[in-house]
Specification:
Oligomer: single chain
CATH class of the largest domain: Alpha Beta
Radius of gyration: 17 Å
Number of domains: 2
Number of strands: 6
Strand content: 25-35%
Shape: globular
Helix content: 40-55%
Structural class: alpha+beta
Number of helices: 6
CATH topology of the largest domain: Aspartate Aminotransferase, domain 1
CATH architecture of the largest domain: Alpha-Beta Complex
Length: 142
Amino acid sequence: MSFEKLRTFCATLPGATRDIKWGADEVYSVGGKMFAVFGIEKGKATGMSFKADDDRFLELTDRPGIVPAPYLARAHWVLLERGDALPITEAQALIARSHGLVLAKLPRKLQMALAPSTLSRAVGRPAAVAAARKSTGKPPRA
């Protein structure tokens, strides 16, 4: 797995923004809330952290190369210390889930503004119904 590929993946998620915090950490956020953090040294990512589901946190931290993230472990964040700690597809799925967990905590109006098509799928509504509700505030007539 490549941290560089994961940085690119984070940037493709709906509503994702990127900025530098704490001097050298690259942070990906949605709605101003972090969902992934990369430690950067000499322009390259050396590790990454992300939010995990409560029930996956212990499972993930039992694996070699994955530890509770410093300062964020109480919120169920994990730190990948090595690039080979997870296969790329699993890492992308976990990052997408982290994005979804953070997005779900945002106010509904902000969720719809940042990722309307993602939310429509997540709650089982067709995108057209969600779009109609967004434009009129009411569901379309049958």
